[in-house]
Amino acid sequence: MRTFCPDLTGSFSTSAAQNPTVAIMEAAFADADLDYRYVNCEVPPENLTDAVRGAVAMGWRGFNCSIPHKVAVIEHLDGLAESAAIIGAVNTVVIDRSNGTPRLTGENTDGQGFVASLRPVRDPQGQHVVILGAGGAARAIAVEVALAGALSITIVNRTPDKGQAVADLIDSRTAAAGRYLPWTPSLHVPHGTGILINATNIGFHPYEDQMPDVDMESVDPGTVVADVVVNPPHTVFLQAAANRGCTTLDGLGMLVNQALINARLWTGRDLSGAVMRRELERIFGL
Ligand code: NDP
Predict the structure, then answer these.
(1) Which of 61, 69, 70, 179 is catalytic?
(2) pLDDT one digit per residue (tens) for the chain, 286 residues
(3) pTM confidence score
(4) Where are the domains of the chain?
(5) Sign of dihedral through CA atoms 225, 13, 167, 169?
(6) Minimal CA–CA distance to 22: which of 255, 250, 233, 208?
């Protein structure tokens, strides 16, 4: 039932203006007739401490953290969930008041959202996975895919040190084998790769005519090819993979699934992924 004082959730980031999460959360809250709101806030780094304090003071249920707060927010929290602790970054904070005193727990649902969108087309269990990129999204995806039972995770990254660091993390903190592969021109994707993921910014608006430098002839048509880029969702990389005969997965699925997980953490309810997806398709004019 609606009141004049809804439960509050939201997001802290800068810049916040291009983030569509508020639109899909509000559409799904309304669809479920939940008296919740999601407030998208522009928060520069020097204001993060006050923003977290404000959310606690105003009784918020929790919030998302996006660039540049995913690591910085950790010092304000009381604890971390398993994968957030391994990844070393938080995109979702849950404020629990069940014991009277607010307790803030950090979760990382980026990778969980990716795995949830992947499962209907391929179970990561027993798979050899290649990830392009070693930034926040790549790190979160690598850890979750490893925790979901992948045999090996190969990290391909322009900057070797960063790629090696993510490979070492997988190798040391999960049961999967982690290795780094230098990004040589026209990258040859190793034989036996079951899942290939672009977790770089390449292809993101306004550079939507670009794609990662991969020799598509080396990609087996049986490979599932995924892209994290959401704008545009039908990237040149995914089009090339589809032309090769591969099953493709766009970044909207990851976005929707992590929003569903976040909503469950905050409200205890399962919201509609279809409503969220429809809202994104409306926004992107699909
Ligand atoms: P980061 O800045 O942390 O990492 C960017 C990565 O992309 C690095 O590995 C970087 O390589 C690589 N990269 C960027 N430009 C190039 C280039 N020209 N050539 C080769 N490599 C390049 O960003 P995030 O990990 O946070 O985000 C990556 C993408 O994931 C973004 O497009 C973001 O929007 C998307 N995303 C999507 C989500 C979803 O729900 N669908 C959720 C979260 C993120 P290097 O280390 O060499 O600099």
Answers:
(1) 70
(2) 678 999 999 999 999 998 899 999 999 999 999 999 999 999 999 999 999 999 999 999 999 999 999 999 999 999 999 999 999 999 999 999 999 999 999 999 999 999 999 999 999 999 999 999 999 999 999 999 999 999 999 999 999 999 999 999 999 999 999 999 999 999 999 999 999 999 999 999 889 999 999 999 999 999 999 999 998 999 999 999 999 999 999 999 999 999 999 999 999 999 999 999 999 999 988 8
(3) 0.94
(4) 7-108+253-284, 111-250
(5) negative
(6) 255
Ligand 1 centre to CA of 228 (Å) is 9
70 is catalytic: yes
Report which secondary-structure segment, H or E, holds 172: helix 160-173
Q: Ligand 1 pocket by C-beta < 6 Å: which residues?
A: 110, 113, 133-138, 157-159, 162, 199-202, 204, 228-230, 251, 254-255, 258
At the topology level, CATH places domain 111-250 in Rossmann fold (3.40.50)
Superfamily of 7-108+253-284 according to CATH = Leucine Dehydrogenase, chain A, domain 1 (3.40.50.10860)
For a ligand 1 pocket test, name from 200, 238, 258, 276 the mutation site with the most ligand atoms within 8 angstroms of its C-beta. Answer: 200
Q: Is the dihedral of CA 98, 104, 109, 112 positive or negative?
A: negative
* In the block, residue with structure tokens 């969108």: 117
